[in-house]
Amino acid sequence: MTAADTPSQAVGAAVNPLDVPALDTSDDQALRAPSPCDWKASLEVIHRPTSHQTFSLPGGRSLGYATYGAETGPTIFYLHGLGDCRLTGAWYHDAGLESGVRIVAVDRPGIGLSDQHVGRTVLDHAEDIRLLARHLKAATYSVMGVSGGGIYALACAHALPADELRSVAVVAGMGPFDLTMSHSNWTTYTFFNMSKLLPSIIRWAYSKELEQLNTQSLEDFISTTQTRSKAWYVPYIGPDAKDMALMRDDDFVACVYESLREVCKHGIEDHMIEREVICASNLGFTVSEIRPTLPITLWYGRRDASLSPAVGQAIRDAIGGSARLITRDEAHLSLVIGPSGPASPNLCALIQAHEGNSKRDGDPPEDAVDKKAANNLELAGRQDGHTFGDLRAAAKATDRLRKAKAWCITSFQRKTKKLEHRFGIKFRRGRMSKWGAHAYCDKEVKAMR
């Protein structure tokens, strides 16, 4: 157990979000803290033939996948995040080797080596996983969904046969769209709703990024990424020093470069479709329908500014049964690949579930996380110094709803100006700023009551 996981810092305890140190951009030493993984080794693994495999599905579509870790042993299917591909599974290669686990990272349709699948849903990809498991002769297996892959992991939990799927892990992951947005911060809420309300803006922004990526050398990409990490990335994503250390690591950024180029092989349309799929209001199932006997582990970082423990708490409450929530003193990226997250050498949460053990030595303790504490940690560590969770608590205590709403609107307008500066566009104030701010803040004020 690390110092970060001591009982005094458990989320279930009375935790003050402001006790979590915010990012201090003046501390360059903190920003350049050593990364938890050997990124040079990950780059080498990415270029192996085992990272570039395809499987022909019965309908004729090709499904791209990569294998990492041990050649034999328990199989874990890795479901990548939004904007990622199978190559990010290389982050778990060393952990898989040490644990004796085979990790199979799969491209979703229209991404990397996988063909398009018109009209697909998250449940369709679960069927792809089942067919690939049979192709790889994996009689039983587990599934791990990271970030945007979390909803696909939940789809697998619902759809895959009980005699095949042994366990599921969601790591800093999205749940159903409405559930996730109801516990999201301002940035995440706006970002995903813009995709639904103003898709042309998102498409334009991605087109510009793709155009630049296709002509950029690795050196230029590293330079651009690190420059952005000092500018727009910090106020929008809100990482603390743990995530910023990764963004300042040239070898890690090189891994991201390889992944992004693979993601964009088919252009941006499939990426836009991917966003539509995970943001769909009707997924074809509800989380409450997942079989309660399936071991499900939900990993969330208490410093994560985009997908907080409140999301994991809501998913656990909806599933019930054997679902368990584990929180760590990590941010988004550092949880996914850090030493105290599921990338730790023994992949303990998945393996213990796969082997059918209720507990094993080294298994991380489950934090007792209640809704109130989780909600108050939604934006812990943000430079803004305030969270909508804080506002809800303040409004309940003082009944100053008007002031809370006015603050929300002002914050929305300020962040909109940053978006305009970032993308070089101009929003019509009468629509985006006024309507968007009031729509979001009405939702927040309703929650305050």
UniProtKB/TrEMBL annotation:
<dbReference type="InterPro" id="IPR000073">
    <property type="entry name" value="AB_hydrolase_1"/>
</dbReference>
<dbReference type="InterPro" id="IPR029058">
    <property type="entry name" value="AB_hydrolase_fold"/>
</dbReference>
<protein>
    <recommendedName>
        <fullName>AB hydrolase-1 domain-containing protein</fullName>
    </recommendedName>
</protein>
<feature type="domain" description="AB hydrolase-1">
    <location>
        <begin position="74"/>
        <end position="335"/>
    </location>
</feature>
<dbReference type="Pfam" id="PF00561">
    <property type="entry name" value="Abhydrolase_1"/>
</dbReference>
